[in-house]
Design brief:
The protein has 346 residues and is of the alpha/beta class. Helices cover 41% and strands 17% of the residues.
């Protein structure tokens, strides 16, 4: 049975070039800052997103958590989108490990803050509530359907943060998808953020890891927090070498994933039961609703998986599909055929 895995772009396999590079990577002990390949990768990553320095971490979840730990202290508050990854899909780590209260705000269908509401929720003086010290922005916005945040929108949030003495961290897990979709250099999306995290193990196809980048002072403290979390690694060059290839060779091809997502979304809208706002299909993520009188979305996801098409069920009538480098247009056609046949059988 052919498997068409639309659960996430995290399922991508490393390229043959990456596998060979892992075999040949020059390595040292990164715990002592002596892994030359990792050092090269961190320098390249920092320059690419326009920051002074960068740190290789094991995951995006760890990268965001480290940034929160650097910018806050127990009892502080941070503001983010209600459906932001740090609020919904990080195992409650902010509450469990930092003592920081998240103030989640509703956003519109495209994942955008109401900036007046955002500013109104910043608390600096009222002793009854956590003192706000951080805003976290997500670009692309995963649960809004992979929607992009523009440079102008980022700048507005940045100005609100600085007006109130706050830091702005960018959860840019798929920031290169956003840049490609908008046709802008990635630095246009990161320049107004104090720090940024991006993943290399999603659409960029590396097997492991993420980068956090910011000022040199930020990275010094981030390195300490990484150690505190047990995230200090050793001969990381075997992984960092894949990250170098990701940055050199895997960014421009993201447009293919975006085109396939659009093709898939348009095909799904022609199948009974699917409801998709095509305005949200801006990158490689499709957020959909599936509604049939006698079949739940959860049941549909279970049934289609038995035919080799893997999809993520989110909640109630909602699910998510993600395109990536290991799927081509022919795979999308096969998925659409299987989905149509499954639905017609209800």
């Amino acid at each position: 049975m052919q498997i068409i895995d639309l659960r996430s772009d995290t399922v991508t396999k490393p390229t043959l070039k990456m596998r060979q590079a892992m075999k040949e990577a020059e390595v040292g002990d990164d715990g002592f800052g002596e892994d030359p390949t990792t050092n090269r990768f961190e320098k390249m990553a920092a320059e690419m997103v326009g920051k002074e320095d960068a740190l290789f971490v094991s995951s995006g979840v760890m990268g965001n958590l480290i940034a929160i730990m650097v910018y806050t202290k127990p009892g502080d508050g941070l503001i983010c989108d209600r459906k932001a990854h740090i609020n919904t899909m990080a195992s409650g780590n902010t509450a469990a490990l930092t003592g920081v209260t998240i103030c989640p705000l509703d956003v519109d269908e495209l994942g955008r803050f109401d900036t007046e509401e955002l500013e109104s929720y910043i608390n600096l003086e009222d002793v009854r509530f956590p003192k706000t010290s951080l805003i976290v922005l997500e670009n692309t916005n995963n649960l809004a359907g992979g929607t992009v945040v523009t440079p102008e929108e980022t700048s507005i949030v940045f100005r609100i943060a600085k007006k109130n003495g706050l830091c702005l961290h960018l959860d840019g897990a798929r920031i290169f998808n956003s840049a490609i979709a908008q046709g802008v250099d990635v630095t246009e999306l990161t320049k107004d953020c104090d720090s940024v995290m991006f993943c290399i193990s999603k659409g960029l196809a590396s097997p492991v890891g993420s980068i956090i980048a910011g000022t040199k002072e930020f990275i010094v403290e981030a390195r300490r927090k990484r150690k505190m979390l047990g995230g200090s690694m050793r001969q990381t060059g075997v992984l960092a070498t894949c990250g170098i290839i990701s940055l050199e060779e895997m960014i421009d091809r993201l447009k293919e994933d975006h085109d396939n997502a659009r093709y898939l979304a348009e095909g799904l809208t022609r199948i009974e039961g699917f409801n998709i706002n095509l305005d949200t299909v801006q990158t490689n993520i499709i957020y959909f609703k599936f509604e049939l009188p006698k079949v739940s979305c959860k049941k549909f996801v279970e049934d289609i998986s038995k035919k080799g098409v893997y999809i993520v069920y989110l909640e109630r009538d909602s699910g998510r599909m993600v395109t990536h480098k290991d799927l081509n247009k022919s795979d999308i056609d096969c998925a659409l055929k299987a989905i149509k046949n499954t639905v017609s059988g209800y």
